[in-house]
Amino acid sequence: MEINETLIMKNTKHIIAFLSGSIAYIFLWTFLSSFGNHYSHPIINENMIAAFTDNSAYKSIEKFKNIYLNLTASVSGTGMKTGGKLTTTEGKMDMSVKNWIISGGIWADEPEVLNSLRHFYDPTQNEGSRYLTDQSRGIMGYVQSAYGVYDNPKIDGVEWAVSHSAHDYTWVQGKIAVKDAFNTADPTKRKELMGKAWRCLGETLHMIADNATPAHVRDDAHPAPLGDSEYFGDPDTFEEYMDYLGQNEKTQGLFKKWSQLPADVNLTNNLKKATTIRELAHILAVYTNTSFFSNQTISGTDSQGYPVVPLSKTGKKYSSPKIDKSMFIGSHFEKNGIKICAQPWWIGLVSNVSEVHIDKPTVESMSTKIIPAAMEGGKNAMRLFIPDVKVYISDFSSDGAFKGSVIHTKDAEYTLPIVYNGPVNILDKKLKIIETVEAKDGKFEGKLKDLSVGEISAFLAVGGIEISSNSVVKSDFVIDSGHIFITGSFDAKVAYSGKVPEGIDKTWSGTKDESLDFYFYKENNPQANNGNISVNVKNDPFQITYNPSTNELLSFSVKSTKTWAVDNWDLDETGSGGGIPAKFFSSPDWSPNYKYLIWTVTGAEALKYVSEAKIYTKQQMPWSVGLIEEKWLTKLQSNAKAKLEVYLVFKKK
What we know:
Elements: H1 2-27, H2 29-32, H3 40-53, E1 67-69, E2 74-82, E3 89-96, H4 97-107, H5 112-116, H6 138-146, H7 157-162, H8 171-183, H9 187-210, H10 237-247, H11 249-252, H12 254-259, H13 265-273, H14 277-291, E4 300-301, E5 307-308, E6 328-329, E7 332-335, E8 338-342, H15 360-385, E9 388-396, E10 401-409, E11 422-427, E12 433-439, E13 443-447, E14 455-462, E15 465-468, E16 472-473, E17 477-497, E18 507-521, E19 527-529, E20 532-537, E21 540-547, E22 552-564, E23 567-581, E24 584-585, E25 594-602, H16 603-609, E26 612-620, E27 628-636, E28 643-652
Antiparallel strand pairs: 1-15, 2-3, 4-5, 6-7, 7-8, 9-10, 10-13, 11-12, 11-14, 14-15, 14-16, 17-18, 17-27, 17-28, 19-20, 20-21, 21-22, 22-23, 23-26, 24-25, 25-28, 26-27
Helix pairs in contact: 1-6, 3-4, 3-9, 3-15, 4-9, 8-9, 9-15, 13-15, 14-15
């Protein structure tokens, strides 16, 4: 009997421990989720969308010149019907693009217990070791250890959001869905794929917001279901207060206010340069980590000169920021005018206990930089997520026949070709649909019934991504030849080898007058595509881009290498900037079967346009046997000699 009672008592203890642990485990999600997934995260996602699309700011980015993001477009997909702490249910949904992205900000934390543990990223650690390792106080720490949370899953927030195999709605899965949506000719399948794509983007934006949260980039576990308690955890004031503000956004509007403030200039510039989502997320995490404290990671010396030791169990010390008494103003420590932590003003008068902490005024002050930082991260994530796809009309003849193509330009995120199959609408000058044709493997063609239409453009839509071409005026002319001519004074360096004649310096630098010249002809098979002319002349790439509706030169590029005997001539000419208008000219000396476009600028205007014109020559001088001249020309000088001339000759078909 005694044995049985003992066994019963032991089993009872195990059951109580298990139930207590399970309850605490369920509580973990409450403050491990940055901002709060039901209120603040969807608000942040919505503001990120607005930051990207309001006032069409994204139109200033080159690849978006002819792309419009239709946030009201309806797409379908699999969404979360009910969330939960350990399980969820999903089902088919139809929502707008905007609502899919916003909802992704909520669903990224579902199921709440498991996913909240995967949303930490410490940029100071080596790659592969940036996941959560900190343990909370009391029963929360016990749960982390007993249930394997401390050692498992060993997944950081960026890895989980970008490409983890156990996550169905990663950034990578979203890009695959976008690629497949362009490729499929099935309109129903296209809508379903884009629903998944926008959800994946929304879940990734949640990660971006996490990387603007101090506790999530400083390895600071902070579950606190009962507040600050030695036995129940370590609350993070920033996240608790931000969740409260999220619940009251309709009346207070602080998130919207902070979202419209400027972010740190250096951060903004660095995020704009990011070419991959991993790079972008890391840049943002580094900024947050080095600029702000979480409640458990404050370090430095307090207003009385006493050391402040981080309270997190790992005891990690971060190099920046650090506080000292010179930063103490009133009751807060400030850095660059931003409150980063607080200390009661009476410390030193009645007590020497530091009590350095994050309070609500600190949170509000930090938010004036943290929320704009999150907005910049979100804007640039959207920039990277939408592929660079353009539609062109390459040919439009007087008989109504037209041809065109849909072309994807690869980048660091979209390294595989995106090929479009599906409808392309042909629009007239008033943007009315006059014809619809099917693109096959990125190519389309057709013939207008109304031959009086003299100007057309093309338009296609893929689940909220709407792409239009420039307008093309009816023409029976094709490219026949072209020419780029740059002349003027260039920065020069000249070096001679061999015997140098009297009066000649062996090396010198200064300016030198030079003419740089390049031609191509029809036999070189120039490829014309709605204002983009490219051709290879003896393997030398030559390209001109202009706006066919305004005849405005946009850019040119030439790279050439020529060799004659011992002479070697390398030419590299590039130009960009646009703004040189031109008109068609007819020459009385030519047949009416020809016409030409010519762009000419001189002096300072030429310098503004020519970004770079370089030449390198190495040749044996004929007047001195054995003397070799090496010459480098670089920047074009701003003077009266500077001249840029670009022309294209067209021949009637």
